[in-house]
Every structure is written in structure tokens, then in C-alpha cells.
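Q: Predict the bound structure with adenosine monophosphate.
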Amino acid sequence: MNVILLGPPGVGKGTAAKRMVEVYGVPQISTGDLLREAVKNKTDLGLKAKKYMDAGELVPDDLVIGLLKERVAKEDCRKGFILDGFPRTIPQAESLDASGIRIDVVVNLHADESVIIERLSGRRDCPKCGAIYHVKNKPPKKAGICDACQSELITRDDQKEEVIQNRLQVYRKQTEPLIRYYERKGIQKTINAVQTIENVFADIQKAIGQA
Ligand code: AMP
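A: Predicted complex:
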């Protein structure tokens, strides 16, 4: 089962992917996570990618495509994988096709932009253990402090208001055309992302034929 989760930043692709990992035992491949790891480790690629990420721009296709192909070639992807945040441009999708990596279903998670902005701007991350909170929807017990490891929570640079607006514009221009791209291939299914995670997951199971 090779699945792409498509949708704007903040729509819940990461959360849905994590649930799929638990249930189906296939890895989640998030190019955002791979890039953040590269930035943290100060690799050549990480140093090149950082300025785009901080500004809410897309990292150039050649850098991301290389990273993704390397990851998909690993043993744990044999049984399948969930792509979260890739492809994000038509050339990225074309490179997937050209490399013979088969995609079975593209699940397009849809939410109105106002919902996305609220979700993204309230998000707080724990820089130490990776736990994710939301000031309104999932507040930590003590404001600004991680429940799990007591570290001080942060707002990621790419989740600041002006950067969010830019990320949404980038999404509309560069990523949204992928919906049509996969629709034409007959493998695109749109689901409503503004529901409980249980219902979103139930719709994903139907979309991928595993309900
Ligand atoms: P994410 O966590 O998926 O929202 O990704 C965070 C940032 O990493 C994005 O805003 C982009 O700068 C970069 N990024 C992640 N995936 C891609 C991709 N497929 N193509 C280009 N840039 C990406």
C-alpha cells in the first residue's frame, strides 16, 4: 500500500499518517521531518534548505527529490509507505512517476483556509521530545510547558503568522495543481479533514480500500 497524503500545511497530514503507521505498520515518510533532521545535523543539504523553510518557501525540487528517493529505497518501505508532504510540486510528482515508484492512492485532505490558519497559528512544539500542542485544541497542562518532558514549548519559525500566509500561498500555487494531476490518473480521493481524528481516519480507510 503506497499512499500519498495531500493537503495544505496544517490540515492534519502528520496526525493521520501517524495513525496509519500504528494500524498498518508501514512507515510515514515526511519530507518536512527529513529536512528538519538535516537542518538539525547541519548537513550540506540542511544548510541549503534552511533559508527556504524559515521563509515558508519550498525547498528546491532537486534537493527534496534526492532525499525522498533515498528514503523510499530503504528496506522498511518494501511493504508500503505513506508519503506526508511529498510531492508538493508537479515536477516532484513527475519524478516519482519517472522513477517507477508506484502510488496506489492519493488521499487529499480538505479544509477551508480559515480553519488551517487557526490550526497552524495555535500550534506549539516541544523542541526536545517532539510533542505537539495547540493553545486552544490541545493545550498543555501548564501554559508553554511540555507535559511529557517539562521543556519550554516553541512556535516553529515556519508557524509564525506571516510565514503561514506565505506557506498557504505557496500551497495554492505549487501544490494544489497536484489534485488535478492525480484526479486525471484516477487515483485521487478527497476527504473532509474537519472532523475528529477518528472520523478522518475512518474516511481514509475507506479511501484506501481498507475499511
Ligand atoms: P512540513 O513539515 O511538511 O510542513 O514541511 C516544512 C517545510 O519543509 C516546508 O514549508 C518546506 O519548506 C519544506 N518541505 C517539506 N516537504 C517539501 C517538499 N516536498 N518540497 C519542497 N519543500 C518541502
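A: Strands lie at 2-6, 28-30, 81-84, 105-110, 123-125, 132-134, 188-192.
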